[in-house]
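user: Here is a favour to ask of a fellow structure person. I have my own habits and do not want them to colour yours. Could you put it straight underneath, so I can go through it closely?

assistant:
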Amino acid sequence: MVRNGKQYLESLKDDRCIYIHGERVKDVTTHPAFAGIVQSYAKLYDMAADPANEMTYTTEDGTVANKVFMIPRSRDDLAQRRRAIQRWAEATCGFAGRTPDHVASFLAGFSGYPEVFGEYEENVHNYYKKARDEDLFVTYVIIPPQVDRSKAAYEQEEKYLPVGVLEERKDGIVVRGSQMLGTSAAVSNYLFVSCITPLKPGDEDYAVSFVVPLNAPGLKLYPRPSYAMGKESVFDYPLSTQFDESDSLMVFDDVFVPWEHVFVYRNIEATRDQFHKTPAHVLGNNQAQIRLCTKIKFLIGIARKITAMGGTDKFPQVQERLGELASLAATVEGMLLASEYECIFDKYGNARPAPRYLYGIVGMQDQVYAGVIKILRELVGGGVLQLPSSYHEMVNEETKDDIRQYIRATGVDSETKIKLFRLAWDVIGSEFAGRHQQYEMFYNGAPFVVRGHAFRNYGYHEPLELLERFLNSYELPKA
């Protein structure tokens, strides 16, 4: 059965090794750097456990699980899955990028196309079922550290900078090294570890894929600075305090991985194919686009409400900018729905979102989000720079009358205006906001990488056939 928020919180009290600001975290559920996002994720689990939200399904094995683990076999399955993912995205306004449904999508894709994993196929099936039936929160680290990107993994100055195999044992393997960008790793249950960047012959020690619990001996997490710490109220920083999911450098100090948790072992081809030959990458990016669609709608809501509050929504030039936002949002949503409607079926019966439309919008994600933020900045104007330093000025007897008098709008009281503008600042100007602009820019890797997916999956035979038909319809005139 799907678990609830309380069960999720209890699962995090396992003596995992996290260091932040020079100190080891004693309890991730109560530490100020993580308490906000932990509570937000607990609410997601409560949502899924509530039958009214229709987020569960009966699996092929007769168990009941969250639809985010579903292996879609039809267009209707994709639609059901989308609605479940959208419920969670709406609960975080799209600002949590590594909710449990992201890597759940990858695991479903792995299990749905087993041949890629060869002798480790059964491990993949068994772990997928474990994660599904225990409702585990799995996140991933699939990017090596930025030490020298001009060199292959085996060419680095030291052998174990990216995570690689140190020792092979009868009962498993021992790994050493590091991986970057463990988003939500500090508050998840398991970590999927692999490499999505291209590997070369000679990189076999780094061509691995496995899962490991967050409290595994030798696994250490070094999160970036928290954007939630030091923010004393949700009113002042409504997004930072609730949805700062954290990103961590993961260090593997001779971590043991039993064979049953190994998916790929010293196999460069399988390391690549697990993402792109299986449905994993399209399902994971389908989840990501559902989230992005929700996030952009939320930002448009802010723009629409702020312009209406100030009366500028009646200006043609403002309506033009709002129209641009509408076009961007409709493009993301339309491509998402098109990828679902035009889904394709592989030989295992998996329904895959059509890659032409999915990667078409993935390739524009960095531009779309940056464009939305730029327009939102213009529409918000300087009002976000002239807010009281905190909510204290709004409740202090010596200051509250000034705030009520001078920071308001026609027909709108100061509390309502400041609340909205505080939210807008947390979207465009805070540290949290800056992280999100960078995060969306590199969500799927460098821009040339994501546009490469669009290039490979568009299907240029159609426009070329159209062109050739026209070229063949007329000839050079005779002399």
In short: Residues 280-310 form the longest helix (31 residues). The chain is about 45% helix and 15% strand.
